[in-house]
Design goal:
The mean pLDDT is 89. Helix content is 15%, strand content 37%. The protein is an alpha+beta fold. Strands 1, 3, 4, 5, 6 and 8 form a six-stranded antiparallel β-sheet that branches. Strands 2-7 form a two-stranded antiparallel ribbon. The longest helix has 30 residues. The chain contains one helix and eight strands. It folds into two domains: 31 residues; 129 residues, Jelly Rolls. The structure holds calcium ion (CA). Calcium ion (CA) binds next to loops.
């Protein structure tokens, strides 16, 4: 008998509890305003949070012909080997040992190239520096023609720590990028996290 009374009491308590929750939910429904989310197809940034990449040097949106292609260079510094220069990651980089520093890409095909971009790690830890760079192209990997004469380019995190070299379109199966100066006091060689080549 005592057990039956306990069960009845528990059932009554559960019923009262459920009724209380029901009233609470009803109360919430009366104070909550339901709004419909606006259509949004891309990420939007409020004006008080300016886009940090807005001032970055724009790069072509076409295929990067250098990505993961065979690359040849001279001596490198420490662990900063040449295959870091076209692995698609800006947190790995190539650093030559001294100047001039040449790095050559086998495009594995013939293309009409017109832009070479040189990128450092975009982090502001990489302080501004100047590198002098030229571009040469070849159809046989032996005879090269200069398409962009040596020129000093400013690398700055504010503009993405990257520069682009545009030149008249030239047929190329090989592209050689020649560095002759780096103003950074931290190294005696050329530095590039990524070198990208575009038609
Ligand atoms: Ca890299």
């Amino acid at each position: 008998m005592k057990r039956i009374l306990s069960v009845i009491l528990a059932a009554l308590l559960l019923t009262v509890h459920c009724l209380a929750i029901g009233e609470e939910t009803a109360d919430l429904e009366t104070i909550v305003t339901i709004v419909t989310a606006p259509e949004q197809t891309k990420a939007e940034r409020p004006p008080c949070f300016p886009d940090p990449t807005a001032d970055f040097v724009p790069l072509p949106e076409t295929e990067n012909l250098a990505l993961n292609k065979t690359v040849i260079s001279g001596a490198h510094t420490d662990v900063y080997v040449d295959r870091n220069v076209n692995d698609g990651k800006t947190d790995t980089y190539w650093e030559s040992k001294g100047f001039p520093a040449e790095i050559t890409f086998d495009l594995a095909g013939e293309y009409s190239v017109s832009t070479v971009a040189v990128c450092l790690n975009p982090s502001s830890i990489w302080e501004p520096r100047t590198q002098e760079i030229a571009v040469q192209v070849s159809l046989d990997g032996e005879h090269f023609t200069e398409v962009a004469a040596p020129e000093k380019y400013q690398f700055d995190a504010a503009t993405g720590n990257r520069i682009r070299i545009d030149f008249d379109a030239a047929q190329a199966a090989w592209v050689k990028v020649v560095f002759t100066l780096n103003s950074s006091s931290r190294t005696g060689g050329a530095q590039a996290a990524e070198i990208c080549i575009y038609e």
